[in-house]
Amino acid sequence: MTATIHPQLTALPEQRLILPLSMTWEQFKTLESLLEYTRSIRLSYLDGYVEIITRSSKHEIIKYMAGMLGQFFLEKDISFTPTGSATLQGEAKGSSKEPDLSYYFGEDRRGRETPDLAIEVIFILRTINKLEYYRRFNVAEVWFWEDGVFSIYQLKSEGYDRTSRSVLLPDLDLELLGRCLQMSEEKEAFKLFRDAVRCC
Length: 200
Fold this sequence. Notes:
Layout: E1 17-22, H1 25-34, E2 41-46, E3 49-54, H2 61-75, E4 80-82, E5 88-90, E6 95-97, E7 101-105, E8 117-121, H3 130-135, E9 141-146, E10 149-156, E11 159-163, H4 174-181, H5 186-199
Parallel strand pairs: 8-9
Antiparallel strand pairs: 1-3, 2-3, 2-6, 4-7, 5-6, 7-8, 9-10, 10-11
Helix pairs in contact: 2-5, 4-5
């Protein structure tokens, strides 16, 4: 079967940066409260620098990814808690960040404050080092999905190192997942991914 590109990845306008701002934590929290119910807007804060970004319909691919990962966790009997785009923030850390997806793993996961894995779908030029957000909250692993390819970063003592394979999910074929996310027929993509997971 030949994979065709998912129409959401080609037909819709890209997510775009509206405006970079600089403000105090108090000002940021005020802005955040004003935009609390504006679902198409996402705010990030790092040491006074604020990004305001619109989320395009392309970000629906996140739901697609979450479904496939959930399927993988069930097939591999992995204990997990999905926390979606729950915001990581703290004034003392000078940071506020909302990942696209995040997960806790393990039997002790419910007692921890920081997810083990954060995932971001990238459609615009990054103006801030996104890894710095997650380093401040000690997120063990960060994935970026961009142009159909995953970039995997592991937290070390000096920061994040890029790696070719997930330490948290070493059995997950990220290349296959990336291909499936770009297929135009969701049913066929899920079947392909499910069959690959079950046979390995």
